[in-house]
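in:
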């Protein structure tokens, strides 16, 4: 048996609750709705009826849902009383004044120690009376130590050594080479050892152009290498 929807006139099954054409509610859904509503209401009433005696037996609280109400009220009142007591103690001026003035009074009551009397010069015992029979007072003069006089004796040669001027110092480095060899035989490699290979060769060539290095055997080798390089550059002259 088919059920005709009153809105869109679509044929549906006899047990269908919603129309497949417009999704409207059919008579089958309307018939079952009150039964479901009644079941839900009955379940709610039975649950509330069952909870009533348990709440009355536990002092107004549901079993397993917390502490009783009067316990909560007692805790709140106790906290308020403690807070009021703390505020009263903090605001009363008598307690604070007593706490401040008590250390000051204790310090004033403590007596200061009196200074011990120093012996007067008249009460001192003479040195001669403290000597035993047969002893005599002997004046001891200053003792000179040889360890003190030794540095004084050593200071004189040092002063002479400082006052004597140095004779001369041996010249070192590149500037001393022309002075040591005034005949033009100074080594052109002096001052070029720390340079790289190409820069060292350039440094030796520049030294050989100077008169102080021109007669050194190394300069002969440098000039021969320069001539060979010039011959390679000029292919027309040959080698």
């Amino acid at each position: 048996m088919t059920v005709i929807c009153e809105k869109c006139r679509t044929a549906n099954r006899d047990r269908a609750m919603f129309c497949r054409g417009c999704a409207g509610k059919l008579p089958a859904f309307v018939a079952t709705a009150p039964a479901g509503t009644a079941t839900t209401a009955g379940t709610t009433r039975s649950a509330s009826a069952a909870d009533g005696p348990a709440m009355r037996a536990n002092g107004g609280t549901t079993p397993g849902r917390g502490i009783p109400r009067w316990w909560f009220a007692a805790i709140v009142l106790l906290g308020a009383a403690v807070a009021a007591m703390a505020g009263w103690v903090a605001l009363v001026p008598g307690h604070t004044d007593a706490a401040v003035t008590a250390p000051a009074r204790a310090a004033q009551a403590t007596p200061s120690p009196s200074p011990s009397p120093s012996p007067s010069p008249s009460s001192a015992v003479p040195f001669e009376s403290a000597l035993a029979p047969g002893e005599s007072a002997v004046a001891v003069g200053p003792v000179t130590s040889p360890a003190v006089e030794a540095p004084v004796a050593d200071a004189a040669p040092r002063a002479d050594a400082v006052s004597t001027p140095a004779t001369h110092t041996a010249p070192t480095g590149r500037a001393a080479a022309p002075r040591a060899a005034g005949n033009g035989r100074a080594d052109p490699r002096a001052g070029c050892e720390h340079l790289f290979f190409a820069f060292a060769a350039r440094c030796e060539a520049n030294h050989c152009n100077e008169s102080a290095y021109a007669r050194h055997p190394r300069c002969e080798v440098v000039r021969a290498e320069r001539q060979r390089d010039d011959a390679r550059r000029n292919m027309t002259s040959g080698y």
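note: The chain has seven helices and two strands.
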